[in-house]
Structure formats: structure tokens, C-alpha cells
Amino acid sequence: MATRQQHHNGAPVSIAHQFQHFRLLELPPEIVDLVENSKSPLSIKSLPPSSSDGPNSQPAYAALCTPTKAFQLRQVQTSNSLYVTQPALETHNDASAFTTRAFASCTTTLELHPQTEDAAIHMNRLVPTYDIVDGDVDTRENHISKARLFADIPLSDGQCEEAWGALAAFELSGSSYQPTANTLTQVWKAINSAAVAEGIKIDASFLTNDLASLVAEEGHPAPLAAALIRHLSTAGSDSEWSSLDRDKVLSFVATKLLEAKKDGSDYLTADFLDAWKDNLPELWRKDAELNAIQGKYELPSSKTIRAKSNTGAVTSAQPDPAKGSASRKWHEKFAKTRKK
Amino acid sequence: MPSIPLHPRSQAAPPSTTNPLPQLLHTPTGLALLEIQGTIHFPIPPDPSSSSTLVGTLAFPLYNPALHGETDTKWMKRAHFYVGESQRMTGEVKKLGKPFAVIARKGARGDGEEDVRMGGGEGAEELEIVEIVRFKVVFSHRPEPVGGGEDGEGV
Q1: Are residues A234 and A252 in the same domain?
Q2: How far apart are the first and last CA of chain A?
Q3: Could you tell me the residue range of the domain that residue A41 belongs to?
Q4: Min Cα–Cα distance to chain A from B8, Å
Q5: Which of A1, A3, A7 to mutate to test the interface with B (most CBs of B within 10 A)?
Q6: For residue B96, what is the enclosing H or E element?
Q7: Are residues A170 and A286 in the same domain?
Q8: Is residue A76 part of a domain?
Q9: Cβ contacts (< 8 Å) between A92 and chain B: which residues?
Q10: Which end of chain B is more exposed for a tag (fewer CB within 10 A), N or C?
């Protein structure tokens, strides 16, 4: 049994009558450094409260965001009492002493888990499509600016920016839009012909806004044209200057042509190849060959072509039963051999 | 706005108060973590002017930097928390695998009025990392009686 002598070597502990409120956030190694040394801004983002209603609502959560990464916050109950202490000079029973004073108690802590989902999932929910049907624009205003949109998505600004660029989304009069494949094909045609008309070399450096304003004269919003130009630019391009990337343009023109063919009718491969070439700048016309878009198309017959479905659920209704019947035949074969 | 800034730790001057804990547990702001299995109960203080109640003494019996040097860490294996008159808990100092950031509402330190909301809060709320704590003193066992008596404040 211990003696009371040790008692006097220790530091007195006191508990404050009024607790302060703190939260304890567990920091993974990759965050510790960022938090300790860098001045990069951190923020905690959550889905706006309104989005927690409705049938398609996402589970509400908050995320700690660095400029490029996001970490989902998960609250964990602690079974023990966890006190936050601070040294204090206190007077008890007319004697002053330095104490370790517990002035906050935490019943829960927060864990961080990397959040790598695609910001496009949120954008598809929040940003309406911008379609052009027979020359008329078909869309609606969501009154969500790009900045507000990013704040409403519990992912880092870097992740949001990446998805925004991949969608060629754009902001116009305080609303955000994502163009359809059909719209993008039309705007691309306008960009291509404006570049030809003005003698702009698109594979060399050109001013993004100069070309975008030429396209605006054709009736397309300049921010949309600028978004598409950036979408197709080489990796090193900044916001002011662009130069288009051959591989990006080749793949973009082909896949948007295929995606825009939504009516389900057959797209003859020969017709597609002609349309693809016609929509490419002259200097890349010769590069329009199917192996340039490997993995992005499928050939339902020897003469037709269609976009390869990413999910496998939307347009792959036809091949699935075929596979199913094939496997069923296998079972039948096995069954037959067993019976024998 | 659903986006709340979380400000990094400000490089404030260290507090002037002497910290009675071992050097290893010191942080720039003096904040430390103390974990106890159970809850400390103490009587309502008779003196309304006091803002805290002494509940016990924290001791590190093997801590002796004069003898073992500042780099010695063996002392971390043993800590005692004497509570009330007659109870003692045995614990240790643990290095946290993942350090804790202590987070508070920006500018809220000292008033103790409102809770920290992690997202979903209204208004222009801002949060700040007050401190990063890498160690905690843990007492994960039930208290044992010392010195014979068993009366006094319970744990």
C-alpha cells in the first residue's frame, strides 16, 4: 500500500466550476504538419441544412478541408472522462500554489477520415444542365454562384475545382451551369470556326478571353466558351492564356459526339468518323482514328458505334441479358451432364 | 455559410504561469490532457468566490530529470493521481498516436459561454486551433484505497 509521502511531490489538481467548451480533433500524420507549419487556410465545410430534407438527400456530414484534400469528421464517444488542463496560480485555504486546472471536459472526440469522392456527385445534384435545343437555351437558374457552390460541397476547393473543370461548368449572372454533351459539341464548333476565321493558332498560346468573346458573338455565353477552352487546354495553361491539347481535343470531340447521340438510333461508324474529322481543327484531322479513343466507345455491330457506358447500368441493358443467357446455358450444360 | 474557417494556431507568447507538470507535457499554451476512467465528484464549494476546487494531486514518482536527464522517458510508465484523502489511481503518460488539436470558437476563450459547433452553425462563426497536444496522462484503472481510510470524495 502506498504511503502518503509521495503526495507532497506532486502537482495539485483542481477542477474549474465553470467549464469552457473545446473540441478535440484527432490529427492524422498528413494533417499534423499542415496544421503546425503552414499558413494554408483550413475550413470546415458541411452540406447546407436544406439539403438534408427530401428523398435524395445525402447523409449530413462535415469535412475538414485543406486547399486540396478533404477529411470527413466523425464524432467518437469517449468512455472515459477526458479533461483539458492548464496551469494556474490558485489560492486554496489561504495558500497559493501552481495547480493543474481542469477547465474543460470532452465526452466526444473527432476523427478525420480522408474523403475522396468525386465532387461531381454534388455538382450533378446542385448544378442544372445547360442544353441548346434547336437554337434555344434550355436550362434554369439555380442562383448558386461558383463560390457558394464550392462552399456548399463538403470537399476541398481543389477537389471542387477539378470536378468543375471536368464538367466544363461555368458561372453566368450568379448562377452555375453544366453544359450537356450536345451544348459542348455546338460550342466547340463555334470555337473551332472562330479560331479558323481569325487565324488563331489553337495549339500555340492564345488569350482565352479573346477567343471566348469571338464565340460569344455566335450567341454562346463567353464564360461557357472560356470554360470549354480551359477544359481542353494543356496542363500548364494558366487562366489567362491557353493552348489546346491535341489528345484532349481528339477525345473530347469524339466522346461528346457519341454522348450527344442520345436518341438511341444507330450511329454508323463511318458517319461518326466523318463527323469527328469535320469537327477537328485541320491540323489534327488526320489523327481521328478509333485507337485514339480506346476504351471510350463500343461497337454494338460491325457498322455502328456508341459511347461506352461508364456505370454499366444506364445503357448496357442489351449486353447484360446476353451475358445472362450465356451463363444460363452453362448451367444447363452442367445440369445435363449431372443428370446423365 | 456552411463553410467555416479553421484558423491555425497563433504563435502567442507562452503563458507566464509556472507549469508544475513535467517538461515533456508542456505545450506553448500550457494545455494538457488528463484522462480518467469515471468521473470526479466533489462537494459544492462553500466559498462562492472560488472558481475551482482542489480535487487531488498528480505525481510522477519516477520523474527525476536531475538524476536521469531530460531525455529519460521511463518515468512515463508510472503516474499517480491521489484523489481526496484516501484514494489513489495508477496510470501512465502516453504519447498519442495521432495528436489532438484542441479547437475552440475564435475569440471565445475565457467566456466559456457557447459550445463549439462543427459545421451547421449559423452566423459568421470561426474556429481556431488553440493547441496541438501530443501526450496525455491516462488513469484507466479503478482507484485503490491508500492510508487506511475510505471516506472522502469518491471517484
Answers
A1: yes
A2: 82
A3: 11-114
A4: 6
A5: A7
A6: strand B87-105
A7: yes
A8: yes
A9: 50, 54
A10: N
Both A198 and A219 in one domain: the answer is yes
A30 is a domain residue = yes
* Whole-number Cα distances in Å, B43 to A73, A81, A86, B46, B110: 37, 18, 22, 9, 24
Domain boundary among A54, A88, A114: A114
Chain A residue with CA closest to B32: the answer is A85
Domain count, chain A: 2
The shortest CB-CB distance from A6 to any of B61, B110, B114 is to B61
Is residue A336 situated within a structural domain? Answer: no
Predicted ipTM of the assembly = 0.84
- Dihedral sign, Cα of residue A190, residue A192, residue A193, residue A197: positive
Q: Could you give phi then psi for residue A5, rounded to 5 degrees?
A: -60, -45
Q: Based on the fold, state whether residues A158 and A223 are members of the same structural domain.
A: yes
Quick one: A100 and A225 in the same domain?
no
Give the residue from chain B lying closest to A112, CA to CA.
B98
Q: Are residues A136 and A171 in the same domain?
A: yes
Q: Answer yes or no: are the C-beta atoms of A78 and A109 closer than 8 Å.
A: yes
* pLDDT tens, chain A, 340 aa long: 444 444 446 789 999 988 899 999 999 888 888 777 766 788 899 876 654 444 455 556 789 998 889 999 999 998 888 999 999 888 877 788 888 999 999 989 999 999 888 999 999 999 999 998 888 888 888 999 999 999 889 999 999 999 999 999 999 999 999 999 989 999 999 999 999 888 888 888 889 888 999 999 888 999 999 999 999 998 776 778 888 999 999 999 998 888 887 666 778 888 899 999 999 998 898 888 888 888 888 888 888 888 876 543 333 333 333 344 444 444 554 455 554 4
The half-sphere exposure of A197 on its side-chain side, counting CA atoms within 13 A, is 11
Q: Do B100 and A44 touch (CB under 8 A)?
A: no
Which of A7, A17, A100 shows the shortest C-beta gap to B21? Answer: A100
Interfacial A residues in 109-168 facing B (CB < 8 Å): 109-110, 150-152, 154
| Cβ atoms of B22 and B69 closer than 8 Å | no
Residue that terminates a domain, selected from A114, A129, A158: A114
Distance CA B135, CA B95 (A): 4
- A81 and A136 in a single domain? The answer is no
Of B65, B91, B67, B95, the C-alpha closest to B77 is: B91
Q: Do residue A130 and residue A74 come from a single domain? A: no
CB-based contact (8 Å) between B80 and chain A?
A: yes
Closest CA to A37 of B132, B75, B144, B152: B132
CA distances (Å), A21 to each of A207, B34, B111, B124, in order? 53, 16, 9, 18
Number of Cβ within 10 Å of residue A25's Cβ equals: 27
Contact between B3 and A43 (Cβ < 8 Å): yes
Compute the count of residue pairs across chains A and B with CB atoms less than 8 Å apart: 222
In-domain check, residue A330: no
